[in-house]
Amino acid sequence: KLFGALYDETSSYDVDTDEDAEQSLAETPVVNGKSATMTMENDLNDDINGKELLNGDNINNEEENNDNANVGPNRFSSLLTKMNLSLSSLADLPSHRPISSNDVFCNRELRLDNIRAIGFDMDYTLAQYRQPQFDQLAFDGAKEKLVKSLGYPEEVLDFEYDHSFWVRGLIIDTQRGNFLKIDRHKYVRVAYHGFQPISSTMRKYMYSRTFNKVPSFTERSFVNMDTLFQHVDAHLFASLIEMKDFGEHEVLDGKTYEEIYRQVRECVDLCHRDGVIKDEVHRDPEKYLVLDDGLLPMLRQFRESGVKVFLLTNSYWEYTSTAMNYLYHEKLVDMELQKKNEWLELFDLVVVGACKPAYLTDPYLNLFRVIPEDGTLKNTDGLFEIESLGENGPTKFLDQGKTFQGGNWKHLQAMLDTEAGEEILYVGDHLYADVLRSKRALGWRSCFIMPELSEEMRIFERQMDMRKSISELRKLRDELNSYADSLRREMGTASFSESRNMEKKLEQIEDDDGKVKDALTHAHREYHSAFHPRWGQMFVAGYQDSRFGYFVKNYACLYTSKATNLGLASTSRAFRTSGELLPHDNLLSDKFSEFVDDEME
Fold first, then answer.
1. Is the backbone peptide bond immediately before 153 cis, with ω within 30 degrees of 0?
2. Which of 439, 279, 460 is nearest to 361 (CA)?
3. How much of the chain, in percent, has pLDDT values that exceed 90?
């Protein structure tokens, strides 16, 4: 109570009071099943047969075994009976909970009404792009730069772009020219050299069989494909690997894979900074940008509820103005209207040319004010200027202009007048630069945008029966192995004839295990290929989380398919996790499992 009285602020993490169960144990210990300060008023296991529930039905002891009783409000009847609850608000509950890719999914509890500021990236977040049309601009522009500026063979201009070859979450080994899919434990599950699959033996030799040197995949030679922008880099790099390996080009023979990748990255990046992409999008935004009629209502909804809304993007002012004007007016605007930048009314402040992730880690980056009419920059004194303005310094500073270039998180948090990272929710599509870095370094709450999620969920729903079969086969195989171990233990004290019978049983088990293994191999291949013919399910590697899935779980408080899905939730919404279980709890929770308490025997 002493320490609790000192700080009583609510947090964006404070979703439900029931989550404070451990805290309540510390304050009011339970001894012998009863609280130290009060006794239990109700026994939840009392027989309450005959009590009328909200749906007008009487409780039936057998309804847990009745599938018809588990639909609509009735699906909670057994639970309500067990917990001695009577709820009147469930009468019109749907028979099944509707789930769609427009939902916002939660890895870590979050209360929106305790968020004071919400920020958005622009590219692939507020501005969704049409693929492969948008990628083609960077791909073609980079090819031309490689040939005309860096002396690559003319045949490079004949390369064709195929974005469907790639999925997000892969790792590029720039030193070897390989593309990897790894699991959460850093085990490489699938590997390609260029477009050529690497055999299981060679893959293990390169990445698993090394002595005293386990790659962390964070070394400079490894690049994470964390954003859809990197599909262009990957395809151009793989195409050049094929040309280097199978063609006869002296210019490529003299370059390492690492040097080729670096030059690809430089050329693609230059396309985003010069006019190759910007000019084309400005000329025909409808061809490249996707309109979303939920965008403006969502941003206005947050501002009207008192939440400060900001835009934080690596794109520079001219391109940001072009894209946001199109999304705001839902049409190509003339130069006169574009210079008005009426879309700025949606935001409390805008930062372009942010240079994330450095923006989130480097406190010495300078802040410049952007003049919206012509895009020119003015120096600011940053934090010193804000502090020199005295009371309401952030407000006075923004009154002079709310569009900026560069700076760092200290400037942003000062302008937003926030006190803690957990008061800021940042929404972005780049797993490293937007989500992981803001979460790990600053404690910001995060929402990860994944346009691919819609298709992943669609396929997952269609493959659920196969997934359940695979899960049951794995349980069967595990149970066979466990049974075999018990037989081996018994053989030590068994008679000769009993041992012979056990050996026969073990042979049968080994034979059956092989059959199950073969069935699993076929089923698992079919399951993964439904998601992607080369890389399989994005969030899963083998039977575990992929590294990509692991990082999404650990660093994205929320994730969804598009930013405007946040506008479908009320600004007072509390997002809850589904809970997590370790393997021993998972096994015990299976309806066919039976707990054997060895210590009680």
1. no
2. 439
3. 71
Q: Is 300 helix (H, G, I), strand (E, B) or coil?
A: helix
User: Does residue 73 have a cis peptide bond before it, meaning omega lies within 30 degrees of 0?
Assistant: no
Q: What pLDDT does residue 86 have?
A: 87
pLDDT band at 45 (very low <50, low <70, confident <90, very high): very low
Q: How confident is the model at residue 219 (pLDDT cuts 50, 70, 90)?
A: confident
Question: Shortest CA distance to 460 belongs to which of 545, 540, 531, 532?
Answer: 531
Q: Fill in the DSSP letter of residue 556.
A: -
DSSP assignment of 482-506 = HHHHHHHHHHTTS-HHHHHHHHHHH
Residue 523, burial from CB neighbour count under 10 angstroms (0-12, 13-18, 19+): middle
CA distances from 356 to 267, 314, 361, 408, 598 (A): 19, 6, 9, 9, 55
Identity of the residue numbered 41: E
pTM of the model: 0.86
Task: List b or e across 461-482, with b for residues whose CB sees 16 or more CB atoms inside 10 angstroms.
Answer: eebeeebeebeebeeebeebee
Q: At what angle do helices 133-150 and 275-283 cross, to 10 degrees?
A: 140
Burial class of residue 301 in the structure, from the number of CB atoms within 10 Å of its CB (0-12 exposed, 13-18 middle, 19+ buried): middle
Amino acid, single-letter form, for residue 272: H
Q: How far is CA 370 from CA 42, 118, 343, 400, 496, in A?
A: 65, 21, 15, 11, 89
Find out whether 559 and 105 touch, Cβ atoms under 8 Å.
yes
Task: Round to whole Å and give the CA distance between 76 and 94.
Answer: 12
Helices (H) then strands (E): counts for the chain = 22, 23
Q: Is residue 47 classed as helix, strand or coil in its secondary structure?
A: coil
